[in-house]
Amino acid sequence: MTLLAVSNLGKAYRTYSSEWKRIANWFFVPAKPHHEHWVLRHISFAIEPGEAIGIVGQNGAGKSTLLKMITGTLQPTEGSVQVNGRIAAILELGMGFNPELTGRQNVYHAAGLMGFNSDQIDAVIDDVEAFAEIGEYFDESVRTYSSGMQMRVAFSVATAFRPDILIVDEALSVGDSYFQHKSFARIKAFQEQGTTLIIVSHDRGSIQALCDRAILLDGGTVIKDGAPEEVMDFYNAIVADKENATVEVVALDNGATQTRSGSRKATIESVSLLDATGAPVEFVGVGDEVTLCIKGKSHEALPEVVVGYLIKDRLGQSIFGTNTHHLNCQSTNLAAGQTFTYKFTFPANLGIGSYSVAVALHASETHIVENFEWVDLALVFNVVNIAEQTFVGLSWMPPTVEIDV
Amino acid sequence: MYGMLKGLWEYRSFIVTSIRNEFIARFARSKLGGLWMIIHPLSQVAIYALILSNVLAAKLPGIDNKYAYALYLMAGILAWNLFSEIVSRCLNLFIEQGNIMKKMRFPRIALPVIVVGSCLLNNLLLFVAVLVVFAALGQMPNVEMFWLLPLTVVVTALAVGLGLVLGVINVFVRDVGQVVPIIMQVWFWFTPIVYSANIIPQHLQGMMNFNPMYSIVTAYHDVLVYQVSPKLEEVAITVAVTCVLLVLGLFMFRRAAPEMVDSL
After folding, report:
1. pLDDT digits over A215-236, tens only?
2. Residue A192: in which H helix or E strand, if any?
3. Measured between alpha carbons, how far is A87 from A47 in angstroms, rounded to an integer?
4. Which residues of A touch B99 (CB under 8 A)?
5. Nearest CB to A100; choose among B25, B103, B172
6. CB distance from B146 to chain A under 8 Å?
7. Is this prediction's ipTM beyond 0.90?
């Protein structure tokens, strides 16, 4: 059974030339709104139990409005949201906490607001107290809490009962880093027990680490719905240089999709990975020295071209990225039609697995200002362990061992 | 309607803790805590009694208690206080709770219910205090006081109906929030609370029939001061007005609920 079905959802904010016309409307007196502003329109998607969905989009794309309609605080203007299960949202932690009451009293209050009765809360109050780990403060008034402590209690109560759908809005940064790990682990555990996650974030890392699907909103509609990597690449492309960019998605032979974007004032001609002897490689041994060779061409006279690359793991998480601006060796004053070749040599101190390289040409420090060309999945290579000891993880950090017995 | 009641039932423990929390929060860090809720109206009574008793005391027929005027004041204020507290809290209720309405999903009707619960609790405290003062002034409790139960229901329903209508409109037209306190002040003086109804000139007496609080306050006077049963035929009109307002209030609340969140 579909857990959440959103069909043709739309939200319009209506303004009337006089508020009395709005009031007349409630009494079935037809009054035309002065102006209708559609924040979201024609949104349709379905979510199955156990999925983890990331919702991405720029500010003002309509993410919060969508979430509010899913949780039910905002009523849609058209279309419908069908939910078969309980939704919990970690949107605004600590909503409705009364500073004069103790943490414990506030937990009862907040859980009551979520619709639980006192017997149900009695059953979990000890867990909430234990999870928040704020010790004696739990029975002190919230007025005396630090903001981090308040967040801890708020997160603990928001997640005291496992929901069918958990909405997380940038809230993965709860409290200190210890508690962040702890809350992240709880979210992961919920997911394993079958909770569907809906995560709103700008952070590519958390979307790709947690989600198996992503939905990209732009201008109030869904413009992409698919695998997180692909959607995030597309998102990255539309964020960059909005004015004169073209975004192109190419299907590669292996079924993956590659996103190319930019103004094309300079283009990437070829990208290759070479071993120490200068021969192209696809399999790289742990710790081997490799050279990333990027050939580009300028199509008009450009005062400055920065070449950058980003190595990502198979989940699309950034492993390492830099550019010639940071390395202090960008090309300046290129003539139209001039070609250039950059070679970056580094040891492949990476864990076993498949990695991709995204390459970009842009005008200054970041690709946001002026993006000439950005190519995701320009190159894919695999790291294999041939010569080194067995290890786990994404990076190769060989230790020396000393033993005192 | 059924959905509203079901929602309220499911959120009953939230409603109860909210009322209790409001009460606790009032006690927190104040020595007299909840007593302030009684001290305010009683001091109001004391002021009026001190200043106006010489002017008005002689004109209260039918009671021979020499503190008659003070009793009269307290009875009227007991009714008015409940009415004006509910109306003024409902007036700003949705604006004050706007944040939580935008972020959490819960039956919205719980908000006015919490207000009513906490106002009734205050009124009960005030009633107990009034009984104590009455006893001190020589007026003992009597069986007619059971009339206060249905009367309280009527005042509450009237206030909630009016409060919901005004509270909903106030979300969209904020002037309402500024105007209503002024109207309430005028209304207070147009209701025989501080003075007795018989000082109103004959040709203006008819106007009082348009004031639904008039019959209520009179009924409170009958029960508490004169110790007789209220005149039900007069209260009946107020009950009818109350029903209309309550239905109107709930209707507007339901119709406006989706747009209310947009405007907060």
Report:
1. 988 888 888 888 888 888 888 7
2. helix A177-192
3. 13
4. 92, 95
5. B25
6. no
7. no
Contacts of B19 in chain A (CB under 8 A): none
Would you say how long chain B is, in residues?
264
CB contact under 8 A, A73 and B172: no
Touching check for B30 and chain A: CB below 8 Å? no
Decide if B8 touches A, using CB distance below 8 A.
no
pLDDT by residue for chain A (405 residues), tens only, comes to 688 888 888 888 888 888 888 888 888 877 777 888 888 888 888 888 888 898 888 877 888 888 888 888 888 888 888 888 888 887 666 666 888 888 888 888 888 888 888 888 999 999 999 988 888 999 988 888 888 888 888 888 888 888 899 888 765 566 677 887 788 888 888 888 888 988 887 777 778 777 889 998 888 888 888 888 888 888 877 776 555 556 666 666 666 677 778 788 888 888 889 988 888 888 888 888 999 999 988 888 888 888 999 998 877 788 999 988 888 887 778 888 888 899 999 999 998 888 889 998 888 777 677 888 888 888 888 888 888 888 888 888 888 999 998
Sort out which chain B residues have CB atoms less than 8 A from A157's CB and list them: none
- When CB atoms are compared, the residue of A101, A117, A121 closest to B21 is A101
Domain boundaries, chain B: 2-263
Give the nearest chain A residue to B101 (CA atoms): A73
Chain A contact for B11, CB < 8 A?
yes
Closest CA to B141 of B192, B193, B44, B71: B71
Q: What's the Cα-to-Cα distance from A230 to each of A373, A376, A380, rounded to whole Å?
A: 17, 9, 15
**Residues of chain A with C-beta less than 8 angstroms from the C-beta of B30:** none
* Residue A19 Cα, gap to closest chain B Cα (Å): 6
Backbone angles phi, psi at B253, to 5 degrees: -60, -45
Chain B stretch 105-144, residues whose beta carbon is closer than 8 A to a beta carbon of chain A: 105-106
Å between B6 CA and nearest CA of chain A: 12
CA atoms of A285 and A349, how far apart (whole Å) = 9
B88: left (phi over 0), alpha (psi -120 to 50) or beta: alpha
Q: Is A96's CB within 8 Å of B169's CB? A: no
Give the domains, in start order, of chain A with CATH numbers: 4-86+203-226 (3.40.50.300), 243-384 (2.70.50.60)
Distance CA A311, CA B200 (A): 89
Q: What is the spatial distance between Cα A170 and Cα A148, in angstroms, rounded to a whole number?
A: 15
Nearest to A313 by CA among A236, A395, A232: A395
By C-alpha distance, the chain B residue nearest A141 is B28
Radius of gyration in angstroms for the set of CA atoms belonging to chain B, rounded to a whole number: 19
